[in-house]
Amino acid sequence: MPPLDPSRYRLDPPPESQRADPHAWLSALRNAQAQLGHQQGRVLNLELLARHGAAAWRAHADGVGSAARALAAEASRASAEVVAANRRRKLQQLAAGAQLAAIEGDWSRALGGAAAVAAACASLEAEVAGLAAAARSKGRGEAAARADEAVAEAAGLVGGGRAAGAAARCGNGEEAGGDEGADAMETT
Known about the structure:
- By secondary structure, the chain is mainly α.
- About 80% of the residues lie in helices and about 0% in strands.
């Protein structure tokens, strides 16, 4: 930015060489009139400031204070909303955690029940296989009847639903998780 030129604020007459030129005097007169107008505006502003400045400053300070109080109240309200939202979220997470723990417990029990059914199925398969081998070696007599009884008993022990169907399939010689049953027996 170029430095301020103070020559426009001075009231110099035209240079010696142009003092006979009326246009130079008109330019100097216009400059003097502009300077006078600026000075009158400054004097008016200073008079207004002396007369009303203190009251205007107090009114401005009161307005700024009111705005600051309003902003502080808004910030406090927003902070309270954030705290309330965090509390609600924490309570929801705690409730979800309890629900997840209950669901995980149900899943563990169901998994244990499925493993027990698979182990029982594997045990019954082994018993049926042994009875079938005995029946083949002796003929179809008493051993075959005991094998049929074992299959019926297995279907009755396991209970209704899918478990009974699985036990019945096991008794009929179908593979219903035989490998899983062996794995479950090894881990228990």
